[in-house]
Amino acid sequence: MVKICCIGAGYVGGPTMAVIALKCPKIEVVVVDISVSRITAWNSEQLPIYEPGLDDVVKECRGRNLFFSTDVEKHVAEADIVFVSVNTPTKTTGLGAGKAADLTYWESAARMIADVSKSDKIVVEKSTVPVKTAEAIEKILTHNSKGINYQILSNPEFLAEGTAIQDLFHPDRVLIGGRETPAGLKAVQALKDVYAQWVPDERILTTNLWSAELSKLAANAFLAQRISSVNAMSALCEATGADVTQVAYAVGKDSRIGQKFLNASVGFGGSCFQKDILNLVYICECNGLPEVAEYWKQVIKVNDYQKNRFVNRVVASMFNTVSNKKIAVLGFAFKKDTGDTRETPAIDVCKGLLGDKARLSIYDPQVTEDQIQRDLTMNKFDWDHPIHLQPTSPTTVKQVSVVWDAYEATKDAHAVCILTEWDEFKKLDYKRIFDNMQKPAFVFDGRNIVNADELRQIGFIVYSIGKPLDSWLKDMPAVA
C-alpha cells in the first residue's frame, strides 16, 4: 500500500488529503500537525474549518484510510510521498520584510524529514512558495541524506475557498513540476498516478520545478489584477454616473476577457492574493526587474485604495464623523461559504471605522467572536503563523461587539456595512431593519448584493460600489 503523509492540517492539507483518501481507497493518507487542538478537531464532529461538502468526505474516509495525528515523525518516516503544506508567512523583520516569504517552517519541516527518514521519499511542495524554494529544500535534504534519495516536486494548489471540495473533485488542472532527470520524471509519474485515479489525463500538466512554482504566483497575481482592475473602474463609474455592473458585463462579453472575477467589491482578501503578489514583487526586485515589481505593486495599492475609499465614503456620508455611532457590520469572512478571515477587507474597514471612534456590532454566520477580536488586534502578517504561535487570549477591542443575528447587529445602528456576500444578507427583512435603526439610516453595500432601489423606497440612503450615487452622497463627497 502506498503511504502518503501531509505535514500541515490547514485549509490546503486537510481538504486535499481528504479527497485523495476518498478517491484512492488503496492509499493510506495521514495528515499530521503539531497543533493538538487542530488534530483533535479533525478527529471530532466539529471540523476546524468550514467548507461545503468537507464533512461528508472526512466522515466517509476517517478511520478507514484517512487519519489525523500529532505523531509527526512516525508518519513521515513511514511515508512514500510527503506533502508539505506548512505556513509560508510574509516576513515581518529582516531582509525582505513586508514582501519576502518566511521559509522558517518549510526549512524546519525539511530538516525533520531528513532526520527521521529511513527510506527514499518523494517530497511535494503543497504550500505556496517562492520560486526556487524547491532548490533550497533539495539542498537541505541532500546534504543530510545519509544515503537516502529524495525527489522534490512542486504541486501547487489552485483551490478557491467555499468551493474547495468541488475544485478538488473537478480541477481545471493539476500541476506537477519536477526535475527533468530520469529519477525526477519517475517521481512526477508516481504523483501523476495518484491524481489519475479521478482526474482526466489531459488535465494533469507536468512542467519543470521553477515553472510550477511560478505558475502558482502568476495565477494568483492575474486573478487579483482583474479584481483591482474592476475596482479601479468602480471609482470612475461613481464619478461619472456609469454602473460598474453594466460595464463589467459588457467587458466580460468579450470572449478574450470572460466574465469571471469582474465583480466590483470593497476589495480582495484571502490568504494568497496579497501574499503571493508581495512575493512576486520581491522576486522581481531580487532579479533586477524594478519596473515589473512596480507593475504588480500597483495591484495591491489599488486594493488598499478601494478599502480606504469605502471607509471614507461611510464617514463622509454620515456628517463626516462616526464617533460613538453604532455601525452594523454584516460579514467578516473574506468571502461567503468560508469561515476564513485571513486578509479579509473587513479587517481594514473595521479598523478604519474604529479609528474614527465608531462602535461596531459585527455578525458573520461562520466567524467566532474570538477570531474577530484576534484579527482586529493582530499585527499585519501575524495571522499566517501557526495558531500555537499566535496570542492565545486576544486583547478585546471594547468598541466591538460580536452578535449572532443580523437583526441584533442592526438594532439602533446608524448604518449597515455589508462586507461579505453571504446569501442570507440578500434575504433579510430590510423594512424591519430600517424601522429599528437610527435615522437617517444608511446601507453601504461593499459587495453589491442588495437591490438599492428597493432599499431607497423603504427609506435608506444607499451606497453601492461603482453605482450611480444618490443625491445625499453627491452632496457629501468623500475625500480620498
TrEMBL record:
NCBIfam families: NDP-sugDHase
Pfam families, alphabetized: UDPG_MGDP_dh, UDPG_MGDP_dh_C, UDPG_MGDP_dh_N
Gene3D superfamilies registered for this protein in UniProt: Cytochrome c1, transmembrane anchor, C-terminal, NAD(P)-binding Rossmann-like Domain
Protein's UniProt name: UDP-glucose 6-dehydrogenase
Domain UDP-glucose/GDP-mannose dehydrogenase C-terminal: 328-452
Binding site for NAD(+): 8-13, 33, 38, 86-90, 127-128, 161, 272-275, 342
GO molecular function: NAD binding; UDP-glucose 6-dehydrogenase activity
PANTHER family: UDP-GLUCOSE 6-DEHYDROGENASE 2, UDP-GLUCOSE DEHYDROGENASE/UDP-MANNAC DEHYDROGENASE
Its EC number(s): 1.1.1.22
UniProt keyword Ribosomal protein, yes or no: no
First-level EC class: oxidoreductase
GO biological process: glycosaminoglycan biosynthetic process; UDP-glucuronate biosynthetic process
Annotated SUPFAM superfamilies: 6-phosphogluconate dehydrogenase C-terminal domain-like, NAD(P)-binding Rossmann-fold domains, UDP-glucose/GDP-mannose dehydrogenase C-terminal domain
Pathway membership, UniProt: Nucleotide-sugar biosynthesis; UDP-alpha-D-glucuronate biosynthesis; UDP-alpha-D-glucuronate from UDP-alpha-D-glucose: step 1/1
Active site annotation, chain numbering: C272 (nucleophile)
Reactions catalysed: UDP-alpha-D-glucose + 2 NAD(+) + H2O = UDP-alpha-D-glucuronate + 2 NADH + 3 H(+)
Keyword NAD tagged: yes
GO cellular component: nucleus
Entry keyword set: NAD, Oxidoreductase
Source species: Spinacia oleracea (Spinach)
Family of the protein in this entry: Belongs to the UDP-glucose/GDP-mannose dehydrogenase family.
